[in-house]
Amino acid sequence: MRGLFRWFALLVCGFWLMSCSIPQVKAEDRLFLDLSADYLGRYELPQQDFEGTTVGGLSAITYDMQRDRFYALSDDRGSISPPRFYTLKLDIPTEATSELADDLVEVAIEQVTLLKDETGNPYGANQLDAEGIALSPRQSLFIVSEGDAASRPLLGEYDLASGQIKTRFRIPDRYLPPEPDSDTGAKGVQNNLGFESLTINAVPGSAAG
User: What is the pTM of this model?
Assistant: First the structure.
């Protein structure tokens, strides 16, 4: 008798749960956070040289919250100065007002770091077409090189302090141009149609995703 009562109670609870109104959540509400951005202003870097390099061609930027610094990547292929990134200190207003456009008064260049290959030497001309940059939780930089029909794209992890590559990640074959004298036909990235940016999914136990 006791078992029959227990079965009946479970049946009643099941019907009660089925009759409850379960909120319906759309997939996009779970995947996309309700974020917004406010325009703070603009600042144009004047033409200048810094520590023997010409400042320019800045194609990507990433923020280091711990140091309150930005790292700006130059996409100069080495035709003017070696591939590099700059450490910037931005004077950004902390309070949102309607006159912020005039308050972003200074961008200070504090350091330039040359990107280096596995041997510790700076990249030569046309060896790297750096386009995207992201700071990892390991205090390293992930940098992607666009490449073109004649050279291979690159995704690497670079030491933040020295700029030397630590890890070169394998690029899927479909993005790689064929070897010279190969009969595989046209494939791989094309000129100015390669990798442009990247981001990092800081999952516990994983540096990139």
Answer: 0.72
